[in-house]
Design brief:
Elements: H1 2-10, H2 16-30, H3 38-49, E1 68-71, E2 74-77, H4 80-86, H5 94-111, E3 115-117, H6 118-132, H7 135-148, E4 154-159, H8 166-177, E5 182-184, H9 185-195, H10 224-250, E6 254-257, E7 276-283, H11 287-300, H12 306-310, H13 313-330, E8 334-336, H14 340-364
Parallel strand pairs: 1-3, 4-6, 4-7, 5-6, 7-8
Antiparallel strand pairs: 1-2
Helix pairs in contact: 1-2, 2-3, 4-5, 5-6, 6-7, 7-14, 8-14, 9-10
Length: about 375
């Protein structure tokens, strides 16, 4: 095999170009011969290389050692890549997670055992995380892994005004926590538009920041922009609750994000026994960041031109102020999305810390 010869020559210091040239020449020389010994190959390589750098022999390809992870009545091969992804629940950088996974892989290979128990793998992960990060990171990792084994799903609610970065954060958090279901309130609203005509419910047939233009202003009511937004969100929240009910019934963790995820419109106590519901509000306090995000959004969606959002930026900021007031009143934590990676880490840290604290409370109060 030519690739094996190229690799073997390069391991002896031969450049890729020379190794590739020699391997091609050797292949042509032996073409048509039924049997070729390693000694023949070495001699041919020396001949075309014109130097003594060719190896004494070309070793056979060695297959990587397969290590099975066992436990909970199932087994799967150990994967450094998949394991490093699971470590992201510790709210550490991806590069650090890969370093920890590689360290554990080396330890498993050193042991030479064909399999490792899942519990032992977690113990090694905790010890490695404590060395690489700190004890709190190790506890966050443990809290998330225990949650994955539990019978109650986690529903993460990410609210916030248009343009604060909810969707991008949701997808990255979902990837790091291995959550496979993400639902946007935009999608829920679109389904409701088909079911409910503009004459019946006009508020859902427009954007969150322009709903006030189709909703009759009430005398002595709130600001028209806020009133129109709340009328839309109140209707869409019916679909939000339906998605939460389904996730709880199927025991499936989910991230639900969108402008219609509004503090106070969802009765969180209703889900206390059904799911771990964690509500966070995403905000952007830099007006320039809105312009940047709207421009980036336009590149990915031709029908969402940035000028439409920028022309309504005052209304969007007014809705954000309203959401911030509600979050303060309802005790909902706020994630200021000034740096993407920092915000992702902050959300994961909040999720895992919340699960850890709830687990401790359940253990202290078994009743």
């Amino acid at each position: 095999m030519r690739g094996i010869m190229v690799h073997s020559l390069m391991s002896r210091g031969v450049s890729f170009d020379d190794a590739y040239r020699v391997a091609n020449a050797v292949r042509e020389k032996i073409r048509g011969r039924g049997v070729v010994t390693p000694k023949d190959l070495v001699q041919a390589a020396r001949e075309f290389l014109g130097a003594p750098e060719a190896p004494e022999e070309f070793p056979p390809v060695r297959q990587p050692q397969l290590i099975l992870v066992t436990g909970a009545g199932k087994e799967a091969p150990f994967s450094k890549g998949l394991f490093s992804q699971s470590l992201l629940a510790a709210a550490i950088e991806p590069s650090d997670a890969f370093d920890v996974a590689r360290e554990i892989e080396r330890e498993l290979l050193r042991r030479g055992a064909p399999e490792v128990a899942r519990s032992e793998l977690r113990r090694l992960a905790v010890e490695a995380l404590e060395r690489k990060a700190d004890e709190r990171a190790a506890q966050r990792y443990l809290a998330w892994r225990r949650h994955r084994d539990a019978e109650k799903p986690m529903i993460l609610l990410l609210g916030g005004a248009a343009g604060v970065g909810k969707t991008s954060l949701a997808y990255e958090v979902a990837y790091r926590l291995e959550i496979h279901r993400i639902v946007s309130t935009d999608a829920i609203r679109q389904v409701m538009r088909i079911m409910l005509s503009p004459d019946l419910v006009p508020a859902i047939h427009t954007s969150s920041y322009s709903a006030h233009r189709v909703v009759a202003e009430r005398a002595g009511g709130e600001d028209p922009v806020v009133e129109g937004f709340r009328a839309q969100a109140t209707t869409v929240s019916v679909g939000v609750r339906a998605m939460m009910d389904r996730a709880a019934a199927e025991n499936t963790s989910m991230i639900l994000e969108g402008v219609s995820v509004v503090p106070g419109l969802i009765d969180l106590e209703r889900y206390a026994e059904l799911a771990h519901v964690i509500f966070l509000l995403v905000a952007s306090l830099d007006e320039g960041a809105f312009t940047t995000r709207f421009s980036a959004r336009a590149k990915n969606a031709a029908r969402r031109p940035p000028h439409r959002y920028l022309e309504n930026l005052d209304s969007i900021l007014k809705i954000q102020d309203y959401l911030l007031e509600l979050a303060e009143a309802e005790g909902i934590p706020i994630v200021v999305n000034s740096r993407f990676d920092t915000s992702v880490t902050s959300i994961i840290r909040h999720v895992t810390e919340t699960l850890r604290k709830r687990s401790e409370l359940d253990a202290a109060d078994p009743a």
